[in-house]
Amino acid sequence: MSDHHHHDHHHDHDHSELSETELRVRALETILTEKGYVDPAALDLLIETYETKVGPRNGARVVAKAWSDPAYRERLLQDATAAIAELGYSGRQGEHIVAVENTPATHNMVVCTLCSCYPWSVLGLPPVWYKSAPYRSRTVKEPRAVLADFGVTLPDDTAIRVWDSTAEIRYLVIPMRPAGSEGLSEERLADLVTRDSMIGTGLACAPTEVA
Amino acid sequence: MDGAHDMGGMDGFGPVVPEPNEPAFHAPWERRAFALTLAMARPGGWNIDMSRFARENRSPAEHLSKSYYQIWLAGLEQLMAERGLVTADEIAAGQPLHPRREVAALPPADVAPMLARGGPTDRPSAAPARFKIGDRVRTRTIHPRGHTRLPRYVRGHVGVIELLHGAHVFPDSNARGAGEQPQFLYTVTFDGREIWGDDAEPGLRVSVDAWDSYLEPA
Asked: What domain count does chain A have?
């Protein structure tokens, strides 16, 4: 259980508000259940799916396969939705996916300035920072400064390409394959692919970082 | 609407604060609010564009002071109230006060199929695309009071068509119950300087996905 609000910097203020919200959600669930609009067992399944089954490991497997299999990489860049479905990942908030590849010349970053659109089927639910006002406001304007908040500095001659996902197209960044990863299995390669590297706020890990 | 949800380019929100090993949810109520929202879409009969508008259609002060799932909750309550499913007095009382409407709950057995199916928005197109890759286009200057997916920071700017996505459900009409009215969808890419002027970070390019009626030839 993770009932710690460590993303919040206003503990005292938020605690009373959160308990108010907590009560409201409980009341709502009671009413909806008693009215027969929701089945609590279905709610449990929805939560379980996104807490334990759908997450960034899906996307990491996609990237690892693209790194190891040139034909798969080609299919992924041509039709990411179909190529990702080959691995069994599809459905909600992954209905239309475009994969964009980082190179020494171009670094891709993904944001949704209007809400928090995110490729759930390959990355799971978005982190708080992705949904936050700082990320949504600044990424389209000063992505290098945003990258600095993540401790990432790119060479001056790398162009930054930001994808604001304003429609139902979801973008998956294929990070650059790190040096020293030659000969690793797909499973080991997937260990190098962080969630942030598939959003564009991070880079894939070097093999020495995850050993 | 020109609301607080449309944040691209605003200043003053401070740094992005990554959270190491972040959990999917930060409180038990977030789990329930998330699941209630997903589970109510079918019995409620609303679409994703109506959900988005219900979340964004509130005062800037309210929008900016609520957390992400608090906004989801407010949107859900609004959608249900509009349809007479659950009313404010019932939420205040914590129990049903009015007769239920005859809608069926999402059964547990339908959860996996519903998530697997998702909600594809591509639709057959009757006409060919108006623009082709490489065409220069200008985003229209529009300020609809209802839902739109053309962010303020790109309105009135010239970009280049980079990707064609075929026809997709048009959120501006779908959100107000006026039907899907599919239109061609394009990825339009802007040079950073076109949007931000001389202050733009060197080498920056930014794209949005824009429906046909957001665009005019440039």
From this structure: 2
